[in-house]
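Internal QA ticket QA-208
Title: Verify multi-chain structure generation after dependency bump
Assignee: T.L.

Test input:
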Amino acid sequence: MTEPLFWLAPAAAAVGLGFALVFFLEMRRQDEGTPAMRRIGAHVRAGAMAYLKRQYRIMLWVFTGLALLFAVLAFGTGLQSRWLPLTFLCGGFFSALAGYCGMQTATLASGRTAAAARSSLPRGLRIAFRSGAVIGLTVVGLGLGSAVFWLLVIDWSTPPAEDGHRLVLVTTTVLTFSMGASLQALFARVGGGIYTKAADVGADLVGKVEAGIPEDDPRNPAVIADNVGDNVGDVAGMGADLFESYCGSILAASALGAAAYTTAPQDQVSAVCAPFVIAGLGLLLSVAGIFLVRTREGADQEELLRALARGTNTSAATVLLASPLVFYWMDMPNLWGIWGAVAAGLVTGVVIGRATEHATSASHAPTRSIAAAAEEGAATALISGLGTGMLSTALPVLAVVTGTLLAFLSGAGFDPGNISEGLYGVAVAAVGMLSTLGITLASDAYGPIADNAGGNAEMSGLGPEVRARTDALDSLGNTTAATGKGFAIGSAALTAMALIATYLEVVRIELLRVGQHMLELRDGLIVATGQADLADFMLYFNVTLLNPVVLVSVFLGAMVAFVFSGMTMQAVGRAAGQMVIEVRRQFAADPGILAGSSEPDYTRCVEISTAAAQREMIAPSLLAVTAPLAVSVLLGVPGVIGLLVGALSTGFVLAVFLSNSGGAWDNAKKYIEAGHHGGKGSAAHRAAVIGDTVGDPLKDTSGPSLNILVKLMSIIAITVAGLAVSWSL
Amino acid sequence: MTEPLFWLAPAAAAVGLGFALVFFLEMRRQDEGTPAMRRIGAHVRAGAMAYLKRQYRIMLWVFTGLALLFAVLAFGTGLQSRWLPLTFLCGGFFSALAGYCGMQTATLASGRTAAAARSSLPRGLRIAFRSGAVIGLTVVGLGLGSAVFWLLVIDWSTPPAEDGHRLVLVTTTVLTFSMGASLQALFARVGGGIYTKAADVGADLVGKVEAGIPEDDPRNPAVIADNVGDNVGDVAGMGADLFESYCGSILAASALGAAAYTTAPQDQVSAVCAPFVIAGLGLLLSVAGIFLVRTREGADQEELLRALARGTNTSAATVLLASPLVFYWMDMPNLWGIWGAVAAGLVTGVVIGRATEHATSASHAPTRSIAAAAEEGAATALISGLGTGMLSTALPVLAVVTGTLLAFLSGAGFDPGNISEGLYGVAVAAVGMLSTLGITLASDAYGPIADNAGGNAEMSGLGPEVRARTDALDSLGNTTAATGKGFAIGSAALTAMALIATYLEVVRIELLRVGQHMLELRDGLIVATGQADLADFMLYFNVTLLNPVVLVSVFLGAMVAFVFSGMTMQAVGRAAGQMVIEVRRQFAADPGILAGSSEPDYTRCVEISTAAAQREMIAPSLLAVTAPLAVSVLLGVPGVIGLLVGALSTGFVLAVFLSNSGGAWDNAKKYIEAGHHGGKGSAAHRAAVIGDTVGDPLKDTSGPSLNILVKLMSIIAITVAGLAVSWSL
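Actual output:
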């Protein structure tokens, strides 16, 4: 790369990974607590590793098979890039590696957090948050590092040319790296989501409802599976999801930058490098922000939250302040416009996070109204939760819509006709939103660690003052989890939008490759021409909403989002049912379990969740992969674009609805447990427990899985663009 | 009209209305039963009329206000047609008139059906079905008749010209008639939906769950409100919904026909008349089909269903057979293509009906799996129902997608570039689907009559053999209601698609009106030109999915569908809560009510439902009306089209999901009550009752209200097209 500041990106990746190692070693040195605590920690770690091992074994087969297929397509038909098999494998590998490191860290950290909470709250927070930071920095460090690596390799191996299309070709080829990351994210998010909720729902249904034992009680055979599930779903799943958004947005932005500035070589290099530079800058400032997160003994919820917010907000604000400077050094074209796009992305992320918190926190009206409705029974609590969740989609959508339009206009220099540069602005907004992922993911990953620390404290019978501390940490984790979920959805939406825009670029490249020239429709005839602008191209492929193929494909996309959600929901229902049967069986076979005299068979429950997760994710995965393939073949390019737009718009709104309904039910239950509407054990509480259980798969399986769906379908469409083009011609 | 066969339409309308009167008088002559039965019937009728009176009073104000506003816009700014105030009022009036006749019929018929069921099942079926036919024929008769009337008036009053655009102007002006019908449908569907479920949920929560008295027990103060609600929601609401789809599809098809054949005057007249002729033909054959519905004493569910199916299928098949003949006499251009579109519409309607039945009937796997999941508790029953409902969206979407593509290709003579004629085909498919509305609506409206007959029999303490007969009739009604709901959604989707296509035509007309010529974008400049084809036009307004305004507006549309559903759901929750408080109050104030010694205050509950319905429909109505207005002003034509497509695709899928989940829970509960999974009173039954109650607002309020949303937003967009165009320029 001829842009010196580009090297900020690999340097930042190295710094991030370095600090991840430092924090990891620091955590490893902490006290592991009592033998009981060690034993429970070991159980959870063994369960988590057993799951990962099984998932990676399956992945190995799927990835090998697909890589061979891609190799055949690439070297046989010439419809695919020859780099595809390698970048694809690499994307999957690094995402999996980040997931493995994250799981190791999380399962080692939770026991140590509980042990530290025995002496003080700030020490517990420090261990849990720094361990979260290991996960956050590993994800961004590996993501940015490998993206840089592939850009350099493919740039170096592509023959030099003066032609502005060279960098377009390079960047769109690098983008296939996202495909591997996306497929691995599918396994991690869908499988992990099914695992965690099968265990959770199953444990609750028999434990809490039938046997009347509290949550995290060691007599419950599914309790270890439940704790494993928190790691599998919220650490590995969330991490893989954001790994993909992170790489996807950076690579899509660089591809769109290459496409937008084909006629100005120096501007093109700047535009291609900018996303990497923003990401590198954000990574460094995330590390700085992490050091700002600390608190004093006896801090209340407000103070803990402020401690986290201080770190995140400082990172975001300094990115905003520093980026114009960096752009100036880079000779960025449209400096302030691109800065506006970065700002639009960062602000959109914050607004969505706030909106999610408003919709799901018990301090606000929506969740309280659900708690009040629970007084009239489970049915009204459920109706109220569904209604509240649907209403809560308004703000996030308005935020994304406003953010996208502003980023577009800003990127386009306020000329709406300047579509290519405007779309680059949208992709840059996604990069901006994700630039401080290092620290936002640290806050997210902190949640399951604190949650498991609480579980460990409960199971090893630590004293009430320790439980109070872990409860404070856990409750903070619930808030960050809600915000994090909103952030994951919002960044997925922006990333998917950037990917859809990139799809169009790739189609144009394919046309160039196939015909060695751009084709244009003039007076009903296809005319070859050296250059054609995007509008002509659109006309040729007729991607207007007037084309019935586009119109019905939007319907198809909306349907795919719903069917995909239905599948994941049913999967949890079925898997939880198996768990219920097993837990009932164990209780019946050995009365000593409930009496507390004999240890239940935790491993069996872990195995059930693991097997169910692997089996149940097949159908939704197939849907996500085959839908864009089938539409590519059957309806061509206009169909694919309709499908992607329909799935993205409906999928985004549906994901917000599902996540927020689930989150609100969860917190309405906790609000009642805190003594409102009759408190624990009242009729309202029983109703709220049902709401919470229904919400579990909504908020932790179906909702988050939609993030993957919208991105994966776009990236698959990009990969098989050659197919769609050859059909459309 | 110079096409002689056009007169088939008014003739058929007259025949339909005539038979409606005959059937009505026949029903009036039947025995009303015992004094107790009369008293209950009078209660329900009084409640229904009180509701209608109040709704019409509000409508009077809203319609007068809007008509004045339209008059000011039309005569002041010239942005609107001067006919708009009149056609608007007329559309609202005739829809309301059809609703009034339907409610009179239904409330008079249910007591008589119960009375007839004392002597025999076939007599009960005959009265209930013929009364349903009164409603069906009134809706189609008034709809077709008034549409014909306005076409003739506006055609006559428009100065003659050779120009092909004259008929386009005439037909798009007549289309504003739909606007009044649509707004009245909003009030009827949303208000009716809230009314019926507030009463139903409220009655169930206290009566069934708390007091342990059965459904339709006269001791329940909300029981009359519940029975009134069946009429208000399923007769008046469903009728107004389909009245609008019926008129909307006919008028949109004629407008698109006029636009597609501007250059061939004789073909244009045929194309404009064809939708009316198809509707007239279907109406006549519906009347014939109605006479085929009869059964023998002791018939089982299968036989009853076959009796209904015989009528409906015969009508549909004869329409298919007769229409080519009619088209031949009319000198229809592209005769077989248009016939193909009619066939595509009819088949799509049948497939959606079947799919709905499969998704919601207890004879099939989905509903049974919900019943099985209820064994593990309410939470799993709910998860399973939500999942099943989401999965069930696949088939209806595939049906609509296939039907639309086939209708398009067929209408376009298998030339995909022939967009105008193809869109005409899509609209004709909607007309085809709705052509036999006379008999399909008869089957739908039969449902609430049979339901109320059962309620009447229960409340007046008729013997078990009579209850068995009314139960058989009611159970048949549940099946037809499910099919009918699917049909209503499917026809709304096709109608809305036709309306969106018409919107584009209206925009084009507006451009002609504003600038006296078509404007075209060439090399970045706006160039005036005499004629421009649709593709140029699309390019100018940039309705490609690449335009970020279009893209984000699709998001907005998806969000509006969800928020609208959330609002209606919350409305039911709140209104039901009030009902619960009132019923509890009555039980507490007078213990004689539960003992059966004193009569509860039915009127108070009716008033609560009525007031709640009127109050709670304000917010969703405002959303439906303001969203297209706001987007027209803020984002112009590309924004409006994105909004409509987003709302339609998401709204359609969401409506199917909500209706099917609700229907499946309802039937899962009935399946358990029939003795499976422990039967009535078991834990599974209690779980299923919660599912059923949650499903009530989903299937009877939020789901059906979405039908109106998608149509109303399109028709409002059409009405304010002038505004959007002037902004876009």
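Spot checks passed. The first strand of chain A starts at residue 518 and ends at 522.
Status: verified.
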